[in-house]
Design brief:
- By secondary structure, the chain is mainly α.
- It contains eight helices and three strands, in the order αααααααββαβ.
- Strands 1-2-3 form a three-stranded mixed sheet, with helices on one face.
- Strand 2, helix 8 and strand 3 form a beta-alpha-beta unit.
- Helix 3 packs parallel to helix 5, helix 3 runs antiparallel to helix 6 and helix 4 packs antiparallel against helix 5.
């Protein structure tokens, strides 16, 4: 599904790029050139994104034991960098137009062409963002956001061209282009920043909070403690590893059953592929006060209260319950 959507985005980017070049050829407007330059980025990013989705979908192998999903972050970073470069090029062209103004032609025809490309971009971008969030695909979500930003800038360009056509004030062409370029620069920076965060395994705090809250709300009595928890998202794969404290007298079979219960809970709730790696710790005497197992045959001290799992106390590698 992500591959098919990204394929449509790549093909659409080529069609819209040709349309915007035609509009620029007719009008000689640097504002329209702004739109065309950003579409150049769309074409490159569209095909890079398509390749990255195909690569990210490959199963893990001996050379890539954690899979290929990080290709999505690299693709998104390249797209963000290209967007940023396009923004700089637009500012250069706009300033050159101010210094060496060129006459504008057929603005009405250019407006119709550019407006049509903006409408198409908006609807395709909105669909791509929705599907990217649903399928946890950073490439699709990034591509969709890029298309929507392109659409917003196109609508602003249409408004600017309309104003120029009625007022005959030509310097507005460069002014509108510079404003749009600034928006494009910010968008490119945000995409690069998010991609680098993924490459560096920066914590997704929203996902981490959701996982911890869900486990806390559905914890079993024998899950005495949870610590050293790490959650990472690679495409549609969620990787979770943690240390879980179980009663010390549990057999390997009993402990394995608890891990499978935890894994199935996460899969059902988050509706995606999950890799779970749990290190089992045996409970210690000082943790009896945290253990909610009602019929524990080895209890040394009375049960007081379970230790509530929060974002602040489950990420570090230390058992809870010590005084």
């Amino acid at each position: 599904m992500p591959i098919r959507i990204q394929r449509y985005i790549a093909i659409l980017s080529v069609v819209l790029f040709i349309g915007k070049l035609w509009a620029w050829y007719l009008t000689h407007s640097v504002t329209v050139l702004t739109d065309a330059l950003e579409s150049t980025v769309n074409v490159i990013a569209g095909f890079i994104g398509l390749y990255s989705i195909i690569l990210a979908a490959k199963p893990r192998d001996i050379d890539h034991p954690y899979g290929h999903a990080k290709a999505e972050f690299i693709s998104s970073a390249v797209e963000g960098a290209l967007i940023f470069i396009a923004g700089l090029m637009i500012i250069y062209e706009a300033i050159d137009q101010l210094i060496h103004p060129k006459p504008l032609h057929k603005l009405d025809v250019g407006i119709y062409i550019v407006a049509a490309t903006g409408i198409l971009n908006f609807f395709i971008g909105t669909y791509a963002v929705a599907q990217g969030k649903k399928m946890r695909s950073l490439i699709l979500e990034s591509a969709g956001k890029h298309l929507r930003v392109d659409a917003y800038s196109t609508f602003a360009i249409v408004a600017g061209l309309t104003l120029i056509m009625f007022t005959k004030v030509q310097w507005l062409d460069s002014a509108v282009a510079i404003v749009i370029a600034i928006i494009i620069l910010v968008t490119g920076y945000k995409l690069v920043r998010r991609s680098l965060s993924g490459i560096m395994d920066e914590a997704d705090m929203q996902l981490l909070n959701d996982v911890i809250a869900y486990l806390q709300a559905n914890r079993r009595a024998q899950w005495i403690d949870l610590h050293n928890l790490r959650v990472m998202q690679y495409g549609d794969i969620m990787h979770l590893d943690a240390h879980m404290t179980l009663p010390w007298y549990y057999s390997v079979k009993d402990a394995d059953a608890e891990i499978h219960v935890l894994e199935e809970m996460i899969k059902q709730h988050f509706d995606n592929k999950v890799e779970v790696f749990i290190h089992i710790d045996a409970c210690q005497r000082y943790q009896c006060k945290l253990c909610a197992v009602a019929d524990c045959p080895q209890r040394q001290t009375p049960f007081a209260a379970q230790h509530e799992w929060t974002t602040e106390n489950v990420w570090y590698d230390s058992k809870h319950g010590k005084e």
